[in-house]
Amino acid sequence: MRVSPGDRPRERDADPPRNRYAILALIVVAQTVANIGPLGIPAIASLIRQDLGLTLTQAGSFLSAYYIGPVAMSLFAGMLADRWGTAKTLVLGQALIAVGLVAASAAGSYATLITLMVVAGVGYGTLNPASTTAAMSWFPPRQRATVVGLKQVGLPFGGMLGAAILPAVALALGWRLAVAAAALPIMVCAVASAVVYRDPPDTAPARPTPGERGPVAAVLRNRDLWLVSAATLVFAAMQTVWMAFLTLYLQGIVGLTLLAASRYLALAQGGGALGRIAFGLLSDRAFGGRRRAPLLIAGCGSALCSLALAFTGPGSQALWLAPLALVFGFVGIGWNGVQHTLMAELAGPRSAGTAVGLGLALSSLGVTLGPPLFGAFVERAGGYREPWIGLAVVMAGGLGLLGLVRERPPV
After folding, report:
1. Tens-place pLDDT, residues 224-241
2. Which pLDDT does position 307 carry in this prediction?
3. What span, in angstroms and rounded, lies between the C-alpha atoms of 330 and 323?
4. Does some domain include residue 210?
5. FRET pair for 176, CA 20 to 30 Å: which of 74, 110, 341, 400?
């Protein structure tokens, strides 16, 4: 996030830019359409598995491959946002996602599909840090977690749309056309971003003072940033395991059809969209700008939901499945905006983009490793119960790391 040397939160509050909400709307739309295809793919994983002859672990690895891109790109993209601004990275990220999805729709083998999902993920690793710093640069500190949480609604809302739309399109036209069609709105939004988005008029790249560490060095030597990043690696792993395996579990164990199972995934994503707004408001207002407490609440809730799913068996009814999916989405997906805000505030304005990039790189590593490890555990254990319980135990370790973070008041 970039600020001019004389910028003060009170000055920005007193004279807010008139078009900040139009910019925020553009960013939210960009985040939403960018996630329809990638996060909708788990809802049609069984169709892709059947077409390409994949194992259960391979079918659960699509999101893991997608998030290899953010692991590799997020830190670098955050550095670019800090140094050169966000406009170009917003457009570039969306273009890469769209190109990757179109190419993936033509893949004839698992290896090709996974490689192209990585390419699309590089685009998301470029888009996400830039959109976070863009949202924060247009709003004052007292609204940061709310605004970033609203921006991050794009991920679960896009996932909800993908889970609701892609299965119907795939059953009617095939999974390949469904994935390719998801790229179209991304390209439209990329063009809109190029035309509409501008950085705030009163900001300029910050200049280091003599003897001051550069943004990268300052971020990499910050103990608390590493603790938050490591903790949210676990949060992200749990979130993605649920997204990758929920429909497979509901089909294979509970006995639901593809369309019925995908509706629960869409419901979880809808809960996540609500959670990202609610946790931002909770952090900004109920907790007076503190970020760690909402994250602890989200982690505890996620662990309890994983334990509940471990004991959800064949024939479970909608009266149980619907609240479980909704609550997990709320707590298990809703934490993300608060984490972005905490990382940016721990680093300070000059290094905010780099810090968010570090957090995204490590959380994306959790996304990449979580589903394949979980799938391998399921195959080794011969069932899902022990893996779901193990996921809750791992979350307890993540909460322990978060408890060591020394939080600072927002400035």
Report:
1. 989 999 998 999 999 989
2. 96
3. 10
4. no
5. 74
